[in-house]
Amino acid sequence: MRPEQFLTFLKELLPAARTFAETGEKKYPFGLVIPRPSGEDRWHVIGQLSPTEKHDAPAPATTGTPTEGPPPPDTATGTAWLAATLTAAAHPEIATVTPWPTTPGLTIDYHNGAKTFVRAL
What letter would DSSP give residue 103? Predict the structure, then answer.
């Protein structure tokens, strides 16, 4: 899943979220602002193609057993909340969602070998 597709998926999953383009953010090409009870979370999205992909070809949608889990509590930290939200969505292209151990962010691994890195701003 490429960054554009990931943002579309997140906007469908979280209708109140806004892309950086919608907010006027120009420093980062891909990102999302997610309103939460504790304030806004801002996430910069970076994609890594699978080893067999090329930028000039459409991204193949490879599905498998989705990662699954319970929905997040509203009181969870930004990274934990987003990781649990993605896990609970059980998208068939997402193989794993891994929070980073030392900085706010996470890595999403897809069944086709691609990755998305999501870091907090």
Answer: S
